[in-house]
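Section 5.1 Outputs to date
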Amino acid sequence: MARRKGLALALGLLAIGLAAGAPEAQQKKISLLTWNIPVYKEKIDGWIEDFKKLHPDVQVEWLDKKGPEWGPFYQTQLVGGSAPDVIDVQGGLWLEYAANGGLVDLGPYLTRDPQLKDYFNARFLANWNYEGKQYMVPFYISKTLLFMNRTMMNEAGLTRPPQTFDELLDGARKMSKAEKTGLLTLNFDWLYWSLFAMNGVELLTPDGKKAAFNTPAAVKALDALARATADGAINKVSWTGRWVEPNDAFASGTVGFYQAHAPAFFYVRGSGKWINADTLGVASMPGGFATPNSHGFGISKSSKYPDLAWDLIKVATSEKWAYTFGVTLKNMTGVSKVDAKLLEHFQKEDPLAAAVLRTQVEHLDKLTGNWRQAKDAQIKEAFYPEIQAAVLGRKSAAAALTEAERKVNRLLGR
């Protein structure tokens, strides 16, 4: 009898424990992985708070990783079967995941929600379309432009932004003397590609199956870049630095032209005491060509709750939170209505920032360096070392392009 009472008591306690644990075990949870915006925690807490008004029974976990850590972390989580539901991805990193079936097609979500028709800027939205499927939507957008040291331009007798590739290099030569150099560019994520695009050079054939860049025009352009680098018109950091080094070089006040995307402005203004509305000019690169390097939101295919993940994306990209993000971190958002309001805001509060940000929504028909290739990262790794060897005088332009062509075609043929 005592044994029966003991067993009954144990089973009763177990039942109570299971009942108590049931709600927690059944509670839904989604996670959000962002790219190096820990300073934005307060506002992301706001996203989560607004999301929980819609879904009070859902827990949201926020994760943030620095750029170099993001890829390895996501890959590890992906392999382990616990990839974050919503991801914020920069540049072309998303392509590999989309091509391998790792991301949700967001097209049906956009189509079924009439409020989202024409909500996002179509030119930027297209950057995340791969083989007819929409894998990302804009979080914040950026593309390259030309920053100009007006003091150095005035000293060299330059009165307007360069209009052609030849004018760009000619102006750079006129400004370079002693410790000063005329032109600097960022080189990662194809950000330098406008230098080739303005010379009519295409990376790939229209079908994307073969290299198309080994042409007389490309040889001429690359040779010109190499000569300008050798004589000091182009700062060598253009080809050897990544982010901090080029920004610091321009912030020092010893570089005339700087091709970079908009976020560079806020970096260099913070450390460049010479920078103000009178000394810094901004313009589009010759021909209006620019390479985008934007951030988008996507949903991991392994997500158990893709509909909830989409609702979190809708909250984060809503007019309320898109505008808040744009004002707080000084970026355009890819939401057309919001970006118009942001430009009005910055024109009143920070006219120089407004001038920079205005370039981000101009000449969007001249975006380049944004090929949707599953092997985008591998193509960069094959192509750029050859270009670097040429501009630093280690190879002739013709030899470098021929070798780059061989490597890229080999990749595309696999």
